[in-house]
Amino acid sequence: MYALNVNGKSYSVNVTAETPLLWVLRDLLGLTGTKYGCGIEVCGACTVLVDGQPEKSCDMDTSSAAGKKIVTIEGLSPDRSHPAQKAWIEHQVPQCGYCQSGMIMACAGAMQAGHHGKEILSEMNNVCVCGTYSRIKDAVQGL
Ligand code: FES
Ligand code: FES
């Protein structure tokens, strides 16, 4: 049993220590905004915040996440009012949308670390197969 704090709520999950956090979020807690892409820590579709740091949840053991504060796209704001979410909407960033929750969480993590504009971009190494990079750049510019 592992105690997880996700989006301000406490959960007890009965999984093995090595179960990826992503599986727990999606399959046990129903938080499907966090996506599975590559499964090998490359694409960033599975990015969540763990104690304020962007982490790729496909490669994070549940045992490592226990006792830390996890935030998923569902918990970033109650009403899409986080500045990154507002910028994404203003610049109509998503195409298919699959990568975008990970993109926004990576951006939010960089913002939480005190970065702005180009600094945020340099911290984001997520992959978008639709190629929305120029709109991401525009969205991040004013943050
Ligand atoms: S699914 Fe985790 S980095 Fe691609
Ligand atoms: S918007 Fe389709 S993968 Fe990024």
Radius of gyration: 14 Å
> What structural class do helix, strand and pairing data support?
alpha+beta
Helix content: 25-40%
The count of strands amounts to 5
Q: Which CATH class of the largest domain?
A: Alpha Beta
Mean pLDDT metric: 98
CATH architecture term of the largest domain: Roll
> How much strand?
5-15%
Properties at a glance:
Ubiquitin-like (UB roll); DNA polymerase, domain 1; binds FE2/S2 (inorganic) cluster; single chain; 143 residues; alpha+beta
Overall description:
This protein has 143 residues and is of the alpha+beta class. Helix content is 34%, strand content 15%. It contains six helices and five strands; from the N terminus they run ββαββαβαααα. It has a five-stranded mixed beta sheet with strand order 2-1-5-3-4, sandwiched between helices. A hairpin with a 2-residue loop joins β3 and β4 (53-56). α3 crosses α6 (133-141), α4 packs across α5 and α5 crosses α6 (133-141). It is globular, with a radius of gyration of 14 Å. The mean pLDDT is 98. Bound molecules: FE2/S2 (inorganic) cluster (2 copies). One FE2/S2 (inorganic) cluster is lined by residues 94-100, 128-130, 132.
